[in-house]
Amino acid sequence: MGPNEIVLKVAAALERANIPFMIVGSFASNVYGIERNTQDADLVVQLPAEGLTTFLEYLGSDFKLDPQLSFESIIAMGHYYVLRHLHPLFKIELFIVGDSEVARGEFQRRRKLIFQGTPLYFVSPEDLIVIKLRWFHADRRRTKDVDDVRGVLAVQQGKVDLGVIRERCDRYGVRDELEEIIRSLPALPRP
Fold it and tell me: Which of 4, 11, 32, 184 stands the most exposed, by the fewest C-beta atoms within 10 Å?
């Protein structure tokens, strides 16, 4: 079972357990931008306490759940779980949606897209860009986030709301990083 199939299986189990979710991180970047390899997938979930047990039952024995603390949980200011698929070793990070207005807004703006023939919820491209820039701003070694933002902006030119992105970047102090990436993009050919 490959990464895409693992993500689809996790999403199906979340749906069966009536747990709202959205895909963020590199998987969302791959959908909106330029695909790259990744060793994990990040999902934000609205997880009621009783929902976790049901969700794990639907997943089956190929998955192991561990509470985890990492860079992303510190930036997101929230708790999350690492869900590891045993064959091959691939992890899914389940972030519990935060109580902040920002986190609730991002979750409300999620978009339903078709991924390998299956409708799934993804973070909006505008929110994804801002999140990736925040992660890079917090840790400059995370150049993959800049590459992801560049890929999303290149593929989505003319389809994302740059005014909204700029406003949110101003709020988090990452506007300079955004503008530098935008300047580096090639111009679209005129029709």
Answer: 184
Which is more confident, 79 or 155?
Answer: 155
E strands, 63-126, in order? 63-68, 80-85, 90-96, 111-115, 118-122
| Residues of the domain holding 160 | 124-191
pLDDT digits (tens, 9 = 90+) for 118-127: 999 999 999 9
Instruction: Mark whether 131 and 110 lie in a shared domain.
Output: no
Name the DSSP letter for residue 111: E
State the DSSP H helix or E strand holding residue 136, giving kind and residue range, or none if neither. Answer: helix 125-138
Q: Which residues contact 56 (CB under 8 A, 6 or more apart)?
A: 63, 65
Pairwise CA distance, residues 69 & 40, whole Å: 15
- My answer on whether 115 and 136 are in the same domain is no
9 and 84 together in one domain: yes
* 82 Cβ neighbours under 8 A, 6+ residues apart: 65, 66, 67, 68, 91, 92, 93, 94
